[in-house]
Each structure stands twice: as C-alpha cells, then as structure tokens.
Amino acid sequence: MSDDNYDIEFFWDPICPFAWVTSRWVEKVSLQTNYSVDWRFISLRILNKDKNYETDFPSGYEEGHTAGLRFLRAAAYVREEEGRTAMSALYAAFGTHYWELDQRPGLRKQLGTVEHTKKCLETAKLPKSYAMAVDDPKWDVVIEDETELALSRTGRDVGTPIISFQPPTGLSFFGPVISRVPSDDQAVPLWNAVIELASFPGFAEMKRSLREAPQINVLGTLEAPPVMEDWEAGSRKDHKPAQ
How far apart are CA 12 and CA 19, in angstroms? Predict the structure, then answer.
C-alpha cells in the first residue's frame, strides 16, 4: 500500500499511556470498518526538546520520553526494511511487553533497552537484529520529520496521539484522549461522533484537565475504581517538582 492510500494516520509514541488506549480503540474501528491505518511516529522527547525536564515535568518523565524515542528508532529501522504494515504488530507487541503486564519493580527501566526491544520484535515476528537501532541516533531525523509533519497539521501545543483522517488533506487533531478502551459496540459510534464534531468548520477544541487515570494493567488501574486526576501540559499537576 502506498503512503497515500491510508484512511487514517495515527502518530504514536510508545511511552504515552493515552496513545496506547486510543490506539486500541482505533484498532477496533479499523477491524469493523475496514479503514486502513498507517502507524506513524511522534516523539515526546523531540517534541519537548527545548523544555527543562527538571522544572517542567515530574521525576522520571525524561527517562520515559527517552525510552520512547529509543524504541521508535528501532521501529523506523523496521519500517524501512519491512514496510509500513509491520508497525501495527510492533506497536501491539510493545503493549504486550509493557502496558498489558502486571506492575513489578524495575519494569519501566527496561523500556528502550536492546533486550526489551528484542522481546517486542520477537513477538511481532520480526528479526531481533533491528533492536540494535535503539542506540543509533541517525534514525532521529526520520522521527523528527514525522513529529514535525504531525505538528504542521495540528499546531504545536499538543501531544500524542495525533490522528489524521483521509490524509494528507483531511481532518487532523490531537487525541481523542481517552482513559479507557471502548467496547466493540461502542467503538464505531464513538468514532463517528468524533469525526462529526471535528468536521464542523468552526470546531477548535473541547478539553478539560480533570480526567480519569488511564485504565491500563501496568498502572494498576485496570480493575480499580476510576480516580480523577488533574493534568497540565501532559503531566499530572500534583506530581510537579518544586519550582
């Protein structure tokens, strides 16, 4: 499939929990509608390269964003050699080896390593040799170019995911940011509602900073009662370090 023949472009950073939740929804929509999805790159580390992680983010965000960038380097190598269709399985494999696991000490520190990336590649039925690319910054050019492409469609005051519908000239928007994966019955009606709203020529934004914690197994929130959190600029307000 050529770059111009996709119904949806989904720009993802593997480290973003909200992108993961939204991606599982988009996969359901794709299966039920036959929409084709091009899984493209956006790096939160590159997006925030001019920010001071010590003052602008909670502890651990720089390490997490860097781990996401490292994994995307391997993904860029895979895409160059195997084609764009390999991305869906690779992203899903990352989720299998992180987001869908039970909480355990030290798990997050494995992200972006050669060994963890090899596990993801093996699950995606791809050669484990691609994992060596996590240490090769030459792939950052590709990732930054796609990050800038996504931002050119939405503006810069956004995060991940970014979705383009009927690219390159169709609708593009940041989000939808959701905290739980819709059921099979909910998936397409919710998607259609989003497209209907976003298609209105004067529509710009609908937002609140209060949101549920992402309902994801590795965060320990999948079976727990939803907890509301206040977020600002991509992180929880109450986790901000002292200025």
Answer: 6
